Amino acid sequence: MIGLALFGASIRYSINQLTDLCKEYLVSTAEIRIEDEVFTYFMYWISRQPHMKRTNRFIAGVRMSDYYDSDSDSEDEDDGFGDEFLDDEDDDEEPSSSSGSFDDYWAKIISRDKYKEVRFTPALGRHIFWYQGQPIMLERRHQSDTAKLLASEKVFLSCLGRNPAVLKKMLADAQQAYVERDGSRTIIYRGQRRWSGNSFYWVRCMARAPRPLSTVVLDQEQKQAFVDDIKEYLHPRTRRWYSNRGIPYRRGYLLHGPPGTGKTSLCFAAAGMLGLKIYLLNLNSKALDEDSLMSLFADLPRRCIVLLEDVDTAGVTHSRGKTATTNDVSNADDPTKADETIDLDTLPDEAEKDGITLSGLLNVIDGVAASEGRILVMTTNHEDKLDAALLRPGRVDMSITFGFTSRADIEELFSSIYITMERDLPRMPLAQPLSNSSAKSASISSDTVVVEKPESIKEVNDKEKEEERPNKELQQRLESLRAHISLMASEFASIVPSGEFTAAEIQGYLLNHKDRPEKAIAGAEAWVQSVREKRRAREEN
Ligand SMILES: Nc1ncnc2c1ncn2[C@@H]1O[C@H](COP(=O)(O)OP(=O)(O)OP(=O)(O)O)[C@@H](O)[C@H]1O
Asked: In order along the chain (541 residues), what is the average pLDDT of each group of 10 residues?
């Protein structure tokens, strides 16, 4: 019996050894961890492969946002596979003008949303599939030492031979498929706490169509200066310049002003224009400490925008005390030294409080171990509440003030809402053709405004089908409409006082009359009064 047991054990041992030898010399293996973006690329790619349709062991789900991102083109949360399963192009299908057709269209959309597509990814365990004529073994595992299945998943990909080129090619394909899906959209990541443990990581949360810079109403010079500064910073010669002089390669911006004046919009538009990803971080999280913040910053890609919104509400407004501020001045040439000598005694309340402290934030922004290459954008409604240490050059290199709208801003906002863009034509109601004389006329009659006109929609749709044919007539109509809208914009701006309303307030009002600019003008006076009254009431309370 003992002999048999020994024999069995030695056989098992030999098989294990042989397997290990084979694995080492005859097989190439790639390991993909769930924390890494490659995991998302791969899952996205594999779910679209034909063998996923044939496999008899799979994980099915409609929402797997634990390891797929939650991108969405539409406002509802999706899980990153939106394009395939929810063809957003369908949303653009124009319901025809009769109300009955809208009901049909809506019923279709709602029923499609109800039957959200089930997605399939390989089940835990081993799977074999073919890729470029070679057998690939996929093994999906979770670590047995934790109960959280998804938080500790890994995928192993193996191919025959010692050359892993096919695996690398497959992963490159997966990445390409994923990145191509993004197109020119602006990708937004947010710092999030892990399922298990206290550490934070960047999770992709959204991909949005880029916002044109022209749609952000701001003093043209300021806007241009901001964009030029970022471009200059991103230029390779600037990086060289910084490194030759031993200056940390970092750039910080502070966008400050009342809520709804366009701070976030400007940041988003700049990211879209430059194709940069946005890394969004909420400093208010109690679990976020200096170490987590440091590791989040260390994980940033070489070129990106880190957006810290409303820094004044994040508990980092406590003054560092005189000692630290003096250090800032004396270390102005070498910002990395500024935080080494922070007198912690001057921060009694910070030491006790949860979440990130001012000294922690300063260390991360430009302490000795701070990351380089990123663009830091902080927004605040109360610049005066921020500590001078946070605002000093090296941390904030450019400050942009956002204020209430000027007359020119109001006109621009009005025009941007009502202007007929070429892309709008099949979707929005058309304006009646304008005669040149009415466009020139300063008085605006109600029959020249944007009204629904079913025949015209059909007309434009027909024309769109013949895209190749230059459409001069349509262009002329657009120009004439624009001229007319700009006259209306100036009338609207003469009613709404400048320097009193934020862009968000004006946009909100105009959106209530989205298709009826003449109504927006007619109701402007009353709206101004009602906003004033509401403000007064709020102040009195
Ligand atoms: N200057 C602007 N130009 C164009 N749109 C604007 C502008 N300011 C605000 N808006 C509009 O108002 C809304 C809110 O803007 P945004 O989030 O950029 O403001 P914010 O200044 O960042 O506000 P908060 O301080 O509350 O974060 C958006 O829908 C945006 O389109």
From this structure: 92 88 82 85 87 81 54 40 37 53 83 78 88 90 60 84 91 91 88 76 86 89 91 91 88 93 93 92 82 87 90 64 38 38 40 68 78 88 87 89 92 87 53 40 36 44 56 78 88 92 93 88 93 89 77
In total, the chain counts a number of residues equal to 541
Q: Decide: helix, strand or coil at residue 235.
A: coil
What total of structural domains would you count in the chain?
A: 3
**Which one-letter DSSP state was computed for residue 17?**
H
Using CA atoms, how far apart are residues 400 and 515, in angstroms rounded to an integer? 33
- Please tell me the predicted confidence (pLDDT) of residue 273: 92
Point out the ligand 1 atom lying closest to the alpha carbon of residue 380. 25
* Residues 6 or more apart whose Cβ sits within 8 Å of residue 527: 509
Neighbouring C-beta atoms of residue 230, cutoff 10 Å: 21
d(CA 203, CA 200): 9
The answer to whether residues 495 and 520 touch, using CB atoms and an 8 Å cutoff, is: no
Apex 54 CA angle, 53 and 57, nearest 5: 95
Residue ID of nearest Cα to ligand 1 atom 6: 262
Q: Whose CA is nearest to atom 26 of ligand 1?
A: 259
The answer on 193 and 81 residing in a single domain is no
Which tokens sit at 204? 């992709």
Q: What atom in ligand 1 is closest to the CA of residue 504?
A: 12
HEC secondary structure over 420-474: CCHHHCCCCCCECCCCHHHHHCCCCCHHHCECCCHHHHHHHHHHHHCCCCCCHHH
Report the C-alpha gap between 479 and 431 in whole angstroms.
Answer: 12
Is 192 found in the same domain as 178?
no
pLDDT for residue 496: 93
| Model pLDDT, residue 316 | 64
Q: Tell me, what's the pLDDT at 115?
A: 77
Compute CA distances 63 → 189, 192, 308, 331, 454, whole Å.
19, 18, 29, 51, 40
**Residue 426's pLDDT is what?**
52
Q: What is the CATH number of the domain that holds 266?
A: 3.40.50.300
Q: In one letter, which amino acid is 252?
A: G
Residue nearest to atom 11 of ligand 1 (CA): 504
277: left (phi over 0), alpha (psi -120 to 50) or beta: beta
Strands (E), 360-475: 375-380, 398-401
User: 256 in ligand 1 pocket by Cβ < 6 Å?
Assistant: no
Element holding 275 (H helix, E strand): none
Which residue range(s) make up the domain with 462?
412-540
pLDDT for 459: 55
Give this complex's ipTM. Answer: 0.97
> Whose CA is closest to 362, among 321, 392, 384?
392
Tokens representing 17 are: 């050894």
Strand partners, 130: 135
Same domain, 393 and 421: no
- Domain end point (choices 182, 211, 236): 182
Distance of alpha carbon 470 from alpha carbon 243, whole angstroms: 52
Q: By alpha-carbon position, which residue is closest to atom 29 of ligand 1?
A: 504
